[in-house]
Design brief:
- It is built from 6 helices and 6 strands, in the order αααβαβββββαα.
- Among the domains are: 38-47 and 73-96 and 159-246, no CATH class; 103-154, no CATH class.
- The protein is 24% helix and 39% strand.
- By secondary structure, it is an alpha+beta fold.
- It is elongated.
- The chain has a 6-stranded mixed β-sheet with strand order 5-1-2-3-4-6.
């Protein structure tokens, strides 16, 4: 009984976990997928912890701040590029990659070998008398071998992606490098498109338009996907995924 109970325990755990997942999925039937709460993301905390400048209602601004030609960020010619924690910049993603690889390998080998003793002081003839019919020492043995191999392989890949997303500076490292993260969610009917960008950028690589291209982001991690009814249909069921892992054939 104990062995039977130990055998059934993993199966019961699997059935229980499957039922819990199924119940969670049933709750989403007929509903559009929810957005990820903004207040729980790193971007919100980065912007929320930045101290805001103190202002007094009715107080007159200093004369130098009212000038259009001052060097402050709020002036007409001020530098508005993201540089501190909580600042926002635009990440431009324009991926148009194409790769083609073709390999061809061929190998062949052929060999033959034969040996015989037609005459040697009459000894082969004496031996032939005791050999089976058709056998002769004149053609003692003969071998031939042949092998060939041919392999072909090719890879063709093409990716094209054009996106723009606002990213927040999460931190400014001691060497001045900015750690950024940007996320974007767009819901159309019952499908949510998700875009996530993270990485490290140099302040001098940010353009005057406060934009940076993806190829200037070190350690870039770009995720573009979705969740919803269409994505759910395209995914195999949980049981099929478990079977694909466990079955050896």
């Amino acid at each position: 009984m104990n062995m039977k109970a130990e055998t059934m325990r993993p199966l019961l755990i699997l059935l229980l976990s499957t039922s819990l997942v199924a119940c969670q999925r049933l709750e989403d039937v007929g509903k559009a997928p929810d957005f990820t709460p903004v207040e729980t993301g790193n971007e919100f905390f980065a912007m929320n912890t930045v101290p805001m400048p103190e202002t007094t209602v009715g107080a007159a601004a200093p004369a130098e701040q009212a000038s259009l030609w001052s060097g402050t960020r709020g002036s007409l010619l001020g530098d508005r590029r993201a540089a501190q924690r909580g600042d926002i910049m635009t990440v431009v993603i324009e991926i148009d990659d194409k790769a083609e690889i073709s390999n061809s390998t061929g190998r062949s080998r052929a060999g033959s070998d034969s040996m015989g003793i037609p005459s040697m002081l009459g000894i082969p003839q004496r031996i032939d008398e005791n050999l089976p019919a058709g056998a002769s020492m004149a053609d003692a043995y003969s071998t031939s071998s042949s092998s060939s191999y041919k392999g072909n392989g090719s890879v063709s890949r093409k990716e094209k992606l054009t996106l723009r997303v606002a990213a927040t500076v999460l931190d400014r490292l001691p060497n001045g490098i900015l750690r950024i993260q940007g996320s974007q969610e767009v819901r159309v009917n019952y499908e949510v498109r998700e875009l996530i960008v993270t990485g490290f950028v140099r302040p001098e690589d940010v353009s005057r338009q406060n934009e940076i291209t993806y190829d200037k982001i070190a350690g870039a991690r770009i995720s573009y996907g979705g969740r919803g009814q269409i994505t759910d249909v395209q995914q195999p069921r949980i049981g099929q995924q478990i079977a694909d892992v466990l079955l050896p054939f």
